[in-house]
Design brief:
Elements (H helix, E strand, L loop, with lengths): L1 H16 L2 E7 L3 E3 L4 E8 L12 E7 L5 E5 L1 E3 L4 E6 L5 E11 L2 E4 L3 E6 L8 E3 L6 E3 L4 E2 L3 E5 L6 H8 L3 E5 L20 H17 L2 E7 L27 H6 L3 H17 L5 E7 L6 H5 L1 H18 L6 E3 L8 H6 L3 E4 L9 H16 L4 E5 L10 H11 L17 H14 L15 E4 L3 E7 L2 E7 L7 E6 L4 E9 L4 E10 L3 E6 L6 E11 L17 E3 L7 E2 L6 E7 L5 E8 L5 E4 L5 E3 L3 E6 L12 E11 L4 E11 L1
Parallel strand pairs: 2-10, 14-15, 15-16, 16-17, 17-18, 19-20, 30-37
Antiparallel strand pairs: 1-3, 3-7, 4-5, 4-8, 6-7, 8-9, 8-10, 11-12, 12-13, 21-24, 22-23, 23-28, 24-27, 25-26, 25-28, 29-31, 31-35, 32-33, 32-34, 32-36, 36-37
Helix pairs in contact: 2-11, 5-7, 9-10, 10-11
Length: 655
C-alpha cells in the first residue's frame, strides 16, 4: 500500500511539472516597421519565482526576411498575470519566429510561426550613434537632434504639450525614485519586482510613443544608493532591496551574488522596455559621486559602471547607447571613456543668463575636442524665474554651436513656462532640416567677429552653424570663419526670438576660409546656417592652408620654389588675411643673414579682401638684381585690436 502511494505521488508530480507551451497569442499578424510586436505565451512549467531566469526562461528566436537572427527574452507581467515577449522589427517582409520555454526539467519549443512587417511612414526606429560619432540618428539613418529637459519623477500627462508647444523630442526620466517605489525594494525583497512600478513605466513609455517623445531612462538615481549624510543629506539606501544582502560599497564591488541579482534585473528591464523606439538611452547612474559606495571605493564603482555598460552592450538586441554622470560641475574622464554618451551636470551659474553660456561652451568644446562621442548636459538650470526665457534661450543655442548632440536638460520642470516652450519650439524649427548624420568631419572652426560680439560655430563637411550674441547695437558685423570646405554656400540668417529667416544670400569659401556681413539688428542674438550648394573643384587640391595661426593671417604655398630668374620675371608670395577686423600687413624679403633686401609693401598697408599676393622681382631695395641663394620672406599682420601674427619662410633663387 505504501509503495503504491509513493508511485502515484511521483507520477502526479511529474505530470504537474512537465513543461509545455499551450498557446501563443500575437497582438497582430501584420505589424508596422519599428512598431511593437507582442506575444502572450501560455505555458506549463515548474518554477517558484517568475522573475528568475535560472528557474524559468522564456525567449523567442526571430528570423528576419534577410535571415538575421534575433534572440528576444520574455518577461512576466504581474499586473495581467501573463508571460509576454515584446519585439520591434526593422525589416519589411515575412518574419519567422519560434518560442522556447526552459525550466529545471528541460526545454520545450513551439512550432514555427510567421508575421508580416509592412512599411511605416511615421516611425524611424530606435536611437543610435551616427557613423560620424558626434551626433545621434534613428535606425533608418534619419538624423536626430535631442531637444528636451529633465523630468526625473514628473508626470507624463503633459507630453503632448511638450511636443506640440515646445518642439521637444526627448526627456530624462528616473526609472524608480525610491520614495515613489523601486522595482526591487525592501517590501518585496531581493529578486522580486514590484509590478506597480513596472506598470507605471509601461504607461510612461506608452505616453512617450503616442506623443513622439524619447526617453533617457536613468536606472540608478543617486538617492537609491546613498546612506543619509554619506556623502549628501537624505538618501534612500534603506528602501533598496540590495541593502538586505550587501553594503553600499558591496553593491559596486561584489561580482558574485550581488552582481548575479543585478544581471537578472537588467535582463528584465531590457525584456520589458527595450523594444520601445521611444526608449532612447540607458542612463546607468545619475551623479555617482553622490552615492555612498563611490565615496568608499571609487575604483570599484567605476569598474561596476563598465560591467553594467558591457552587459547592456551584450544583451540589449537594439544596442541603445549608454551614459552616466557625476554632479556639481565635476569632469568625469573615466566615466566618459566608459559610456557611449558624455554627460555633464552643472548648477554653478544660477544667477546669470550670460555666465551660463561660458560654462556650457567651455564644457561642450572641451569634450568635443577630447572625446569622439556625442555629448550633452543632463542637468542644469536656475530656479530664478526672472532670468527666463533668456537663460534657457542662451543655453540651447550656445550648446548647439559648441558641438552638443542634445540641448542642455533643464532641471526645474515645474517652472517651465509657455515662453520657455516657445523658445524650444523656435530652436526645433532651426535644427529640423540639418543633416547631422551624413555630414562628416565635424569640428569647431576658428572664427572672428568685428567690431564686437560673441560667436560660436560648429561645422561639418557641407554645413556651418553659428550663433552670435551681444549684437543689439544695430551695427553690421563682419564674420570670418576658417577651416571650412571650399565652395558656394547658401547663407540664411535666423531670428532666434521669432523663429523666422530674414536674410538669404550666397557666400563663397576659398582656401578653407569664408567671410560675410551679419545684418545690423537690435536683437540680443542671431543664428546663421551655411549649407554648401557646390563644392569647389580645388577643394581637395594642393591649395591648402599651411598655417592658421591665430585666425588673422594664413600663409599659402609659393607655387615655384625653388624659382629660376631666367624663366620668370618675378615670384608670387600669396597669403590670406582671414579676419574682417581692419588689419595692416607688411611683407619683406631678407637674405640668408637676415639682412633686409626689400620691402614689398609700402610699409604697413590695410588689406580689405581675404586673398592677397605680393610680387618680388628679384631686386633689392636699390633696384639691383640679387644673386642666387636662399632668401626669406616675412609676412606680418596686426589688427586694430593689436592682435599680431608673423610668418616666415624661405625662397630658393637660382640663376
Amino acid at each position: 500500500m505504501i509503495k503504491k502511494f509513493l508511485i502515484i505521488t511521483f507520477f502526479c508530480s511529474y505530470i504537474y511539472s512537465l513543461h509545455s507551451i499551450n498557446s501563443i497569442t500575437p497582438n497582430s499578424t501584420e505589424v508596422l516597421k519599428y512598431k511593437k510586436f507582442e506575444l502572450i505565451v501560455n505555458f506549463t512549467a515548474g518554477y517558484t519565482n517568475p522573475y528568475d531566469p535560472d528557474e524559468i526562461d522564456l525567449y523567442c528566436i526571430f528570423v528576419s526576411p534577410t535571415n538575421k537572427t534575433w534572440r528576444i527574452n520574455g518577461f512576466y507581467d504581474g499586473i495581467s498575470k501573463s508571460w509576454k515577449i515584446r519585439f520591434t522589427p526593422n525589416e519589411v517582409g515575412r518574419w519567422k519566429y519560434q518560442v522556447f520555454v526552459k525550466d529545471y526539467s528541460g526545454e520545450t519549443s513551439s512550432q514555427n510561426y510567421e508575421f508580416n512587417c509592412i512599411n511605416s511612414d511615421t516611425s524611424h526606429g530606435w536611437i543610435k550613434i551616427a557613423n560620424n560619432k558626434r551626433y545621434l540618428m534613428y535606425d533608418d539613418g534619419t538624423p536626430f537632434y535631442g531637444i528636451g529637459d529633465s523630468r526625473a519623477w514628473a508626470s507624463y500627462s503633459n507630453f503632448d504639450v511638450l511636443k506640440n508647444s515646445g518642439g521637444m523630442n526627448i526627456v530624462l526620466v528616473w526609472l524608480g525614485p525610491p520614495w515613489a517605489g523601486m522595482i526591487e525594494n525592501t517590501s518585496l525583497g531581493i529578486g522580486n519586482y514590484d509590478q506597480r512600478v513596472c506598470y507605471r513605466i509601461d504607461n510612461y513609455i506608452d505616453a512617450a510613443e503616442q506623443n513622439g517623445i524619447h526617453i533617457i531612462l536613468c536606472l540608478w538615481p543617486h538617492d537609491a544608493l546613498r546612506i543619509p549624510g554619506n556623502p549628501w543629506p537624505n538618501g534612500n539606501w534603506s528602501l533598496n532591496a540590495y541593502s538586505q544582502i550587501t553594503t553600499p560599497e558591496g553593491f559596486y564591488s561584489d561580482t558574485s551574488t550581488v552582481w548575479e541579482y543585478q544581471k537578472k534585473l537588467y535582463r528584465y528591464i531590457i525584456a520589458r522596455w527595450g523594444y520601445s523606439t521611444s526608449l532612447a538611452v540607458w542612463n546607468i547612474i545619475s551623479e555617482i559621486n553622490g552615492t555612498t559606495g563611490y565615496v568608499q571605493n571609487p575604483t570599484a564603482a567605476e569598474n561596476w559602471c563598465r560591467r553594467v555598460h558591457e552587459f547592456f552592450k551584450t544583451n540589449d538586441p537594439y544596442n541603445k547607447p549608454t551614459t552616466g554622470s557625476k554632479s556639481g560641475d565635476q569632469f568625469w574622464n573615466n566615466g566618459y571613456n566608459i559610456f557611449d554618451l558624455v554627460e555633464y551636470h552643472t548648477y554653478k551659474d544660477r544667477t546669470s543668463a550670460d555666465s551660463v553660456v561660458k560654462t556650457i561652451t567651455d564644457f561642450t568644446k572641451t569634450v568635443f575636442s577630447t572625446f569622439e562621442k556625442p555629448n550633452f548636459i543632463g542637468e542644469y538650470g536656475s530656479d530664478n524665474s526672472s532670468l527666463q526665457p533668456t537663460y534657457l534661450h542662451n543655453s540651447i543655442w550656445s550648446a548647439l554651436c559648441s558641438g552638443a548632440a542634445i540641448t542642455p536638460m533643464y532641471w526645474w520642470w515645474d517652472n517651465v513656462t509657455d515662453d520657455m516652450l516657445t523658445h524650444m519650439k523656435i530652436f526645433s524649427e532651426f535644427v529640423k532640416d540639418i543633416d547631422f548624420v551624413n555630414n562628416t568631419d565635424w569640428k569647431l572652426p576658428q572664427c572672428s567677429i568685428y567690431p564686437s560680439g560673441d560667436i560660436y560655430v560648429v561645422s561639418g563637411s557641407s554645413i556651418v552653424l553659428g550663433w552670435v550674441k551681444g549684437i543689439y547695437d544695430n551695427k553690421e558685423r563682419n564674420i570670418s570663419i576658417q577651416g571650412v570646405t571650399n565652395g558656394k554656400y547658401e547663407l540664411k540668417i535666423y531670428d532666434t526670438w521669432t523663429g523666422s529667416y530674414f536674410s538669404t544670400s550666397e557666400v563663397e569659401s576659398s582656401y578653407s576660409s569664408l567671410s560675410f556681413v551679419l545684418p545690423a539688428t537690435t536683437k540680443q542674438d542671431l543664428a546663421f546656417k551655411l549649407v554648401i550648394k557646390n563644392k569647389s573643384e580645388d577643394s581637395n587640391s594642393n591649395n591648402q592652408i599651411v598655417d592658421v595661426g591665430n585666425s588673422i593671417l594664413v600663409k599659402l604655398p609659393v607655387e615655384q620654389n625653388p624659382t629660376t630668374m631666367n624663366n620668370t620675371q618675378f615670384v608670387k608670395i600669396p597669403y590670406m588675411v582671414t579676419t574682417l577686423i581692419p588689419t595692416k600687413v607688411r611683407v619683406t624679403i631678407y637674405d640668408i643673414n637676415m639682412r633686409l633686401v626689400k620691402e614689398l609693401t609700402y610699409g604697413w598697408e590695410y588689406k580689405s579682401s581675404p586673398y592677397q599676393e605680393e610680387k618680388w622681382d628679384f631686386k633689392d631695395k636699390n633696384g639691383n638684381k640679387v644673386g642666387s641663394g636662399i632668401y626669406f620672406y616675412k609676412i606680418e599682420a596686426i589688427t586694430d585690436y593689436k592682435v599680431k601674427k608673423v610668418v616666415l619662410d624661405k625662397i630658393v633663387v637660382l640663376k
